[in-house]
Amino acid sequence: MPIKFGTDLDDVIVPFVPSISAFTHREYQITAGYEDFTSFEFAEIWGLTVEECDEILDAYFASDDFLEIEPRTDAVIGLNSLNFSGVDLSLITSRHNLIREHTRKWIKTKFPDVFTNICFSSNVHTDRASGKTKAEILHELGITHFAEDSAHYAPECAEVCEVVYLFRHPWNRDLILPKNVMEVDTWYEVTAHIRSIIT
């Protein structure tokens, strides 16, 4: 059976947490940085209410820090390499409803003709992202291999995928993971593993 590859976006393709940390430090004097994100609960990390966090997130989403964020170099190389090799690629992200149209345009600009599907899922951390779960979307698309950063989503996705590549971050360390979840640091590890299967 041919590989159908899917990937998350934030902190897999783009450095979302480092970017928003720099923004909040500059604009709100919040000192929490990348290494402080031991969970993905912004209210807990920033010491603010959920409403205050939503206001900051909305300001970030309207900023150049977000609108002009650049993808990881290894992600650009890896995804274009897989696409060139004929691997079917889909993007599945749980980004908020209000930034989904921008996300579609950004993907088509940064990764033209790379993704067969761009899908938006629900988000366990907020009610501002509607849709099916990531696992449901992966199952419907027949995705066999998926790149993710969330400790919450990875085990669920592992139930419907052959392999889940979990990018290591402070918020997903020291976990007991399903056997088919492979921890990685770079896209070079992902593409090397896939090439070992398809060649």
Describe the protein.
The protein is of the alpha/beta class. The protein has two domains: 4-15 and 71-198, Rossmann fold (3-Layer(aba) Sandwich), CATH 3.40.50.1000; 16-67. The protein is 42% helix and 14% strand. The protein is built from nine helices and six strands, in the order E-H-H-H-H-H-E-H-E-H-E-H-E-E-H. The chain has a six-stranded parallel β-sheet, with helices on both faces. Helix 5 (73-84) packs parallel to helix 9.
| Count of discrete alpha- or pi-helical segments spanning 4 or more residues | 9
Terminal CA distance reads 13 Å
**What percent of residues adopt helix (DSSP H or I)?**
40-55%
Q: Estimate nothing, just give the exact number of structural domains.
A: 2
Strand content: 5-15%
Order of helices and strands: EHHHHHEHEHEHEEH
The low-confidence parts are none
What is the radius of gyration computed over CA atoms, rounded to a whole number of angstroms? 16 Å
CATH fourth-tier homologous superfamily of the largest domain: HAD superfamily/HAD-like
Strand and helix layout:
Blueprint: E1 4-7, H1 16-28, H2 42-46, H3 50-61, H4 64-67, H5 73-84, E2 88-93, H6 100-110, E3 117-120, H7 134-141, E4 145-148, H8 153-158, E5 163-167, E6 181-184, H9 187-198
Parallel strand pairs: 1-2, 1-4, 2-3, 4-5, 5-6
Helix pairs in contact: 5-9
Question: What structural keywords apply?
Answer:
alpha/beta, 6 strands, 14% strand, globular, 199 residues, Rossmann fold, 6-stranded parallel β-sheet, 2 domains
Short note summarizing the structure:
The chain is built from 9 helices and 6 strands, in the order E-H-H-H-H-H-E-H-E-H-E-H-E-E-H.
